[in-house]
Design goal:
This protein is an alpha/beta fold. The chain is built from 14 helices and five strands. Bound molecules: adenosine monophosphate (AMP) and magnesium ion.
Length: 303
């Protein structure tokens, strides 16, 4: 496994720390979405076996970082924080796998996931941000969105569900919505998973040929695939118009599932690290409390 090069953790150089990964993956308008090599592994020099090890090692870090987020939000000074991770990407780009990795790392008490599909009748009867607003996490928690309010531009535009005059102003509305969240202590981290045409074809083919995966197949995925370049343009417009230092977009090459999962975990760690989270000081006298504890031990009696 180590191939004489040490473990992945031992090799973690400056480029692979969370801040370094974030810098490498931040959306760059000059390069564009299509300028990103979908099978590259920015910030990670190892192979799949190393990547899986690194993913496992990070699971503990992510869990502890969320614990810190929760504890920080209990501070008496009212410094409340939470985080929303938005996942977008084509069909079969691996959004679900990233969600599984993160929810497996943190657990349901600290991380809530929401898959935003075609709006239900009730959702469709409301403002487009209504269903998103309801899933904004409470203080101390992380919310992971598998698709998001960005579908109210993307899906609506691509499927002609409403005229341009409806979805076009939403770039600005979404930025205002996100600004309000970040100004109130809720970080918004946005990730676009990107796969190649060939990789998407392989993954969609598996859904067609492997019986256990047939439930994932949807004819509409093929219709969407046919419009590959139109989607690329729609994604690019979203990235270009809604990327901001306060609610940044990251583009994660996702041909290698292990890389995408590791990288998104690192992005999460980076943002949690950047929050300057601190545990609350104990609101009691530890020495006195310990004496009390010892006293109880001495006093416990059998019935
Ligand atoms: P999946 O993620 O494969 O389960 O598919 C969910 C589907 O719901 C995708 O085809 C999305 O485009 C669609 N969807 C998500 N949000 C919206 C929305 N706001 N309006 C219309 N379609 C949506
Ligand atoms: Mg789909």
């Amino acid at each position: 496994m180590t191939r004489g090069r040490g473990t992945s953790a031992g090799r973690a150089g400056p480029l692979t720390d969370p801040a370094g990964v974030a810098a490498l993956l931040r959306y760059d308008a000059d390069r564009g979405l299509t300028g990103v090599d979908t099978s590259s592994t920015p910030g990670f020099a190892g192979r799949k076996t190393d990547g899986l090890l690194a993913q496992d090692a990070d699971a503990g870090l992510i869990r502890r970082a969320q614990e810190r987020l929760h504890a920080h939000s209990l501070r008496p000074d009212g410094a409340r924080r939470a985080l929303i991770l938005v996942l977008q990407g084509r069909d079969a780009s691996g959004k679900g796998g990233v969600v599984r990795h993160l929810s497996g790392s943190v657990g349901p008490h600290g991380l809530e996931t929401t898959a935003f599909g075609v709006p239900t009748q009730e959702e469709a009867a409301h403002h487009f941000l209504w269903r998103v607003q309801r899933r904004v996490p409470p203080w101390g928690r992380i919310a992971v969105f598998d698709r998001s309010h960005y579908e109210d531009i993307l899906a609506v535009r691509m499927h002609g569900l409403a005229p341009r005059s409806v979805w076009e102003p939403r770039y600005g509305m979404i930025r205002e919505f996100e600004d309000g969240l970040t100004a109130n202590g809720i970080d918004v981290v946005k990730v676009m998973l990107t796969v190649s045409q060939g990789e998407q074809a392989e993954r969609l083919r598996e859904r067609i040929t492997v019986p256990e995966k047939a439930w994932k197949h949807s004819a509409s995925d093929l219709a969407d695939r046919l419009r590959w370049h139109e989607y690329a343009e729609a994604f690019e417009d979203v990235l270009l118009r809604t990327d901001d230092d306060s609610a940044p977009w990251y583009v994660v090459p996702s041909n290698r599932k292990w890389y995408a999962r590791w990288a998104v975990g690192r992005l999460l760690l980076h943002h949690l690290d950047s929050m300057g989270l601190e545990f609350p000081a104990p609101a009691f006298d530890p020495a006195a409390a310990e004496e009390e504890l010892d006293a109880t031990t001495a006093l416990i009696t059998r019935p």
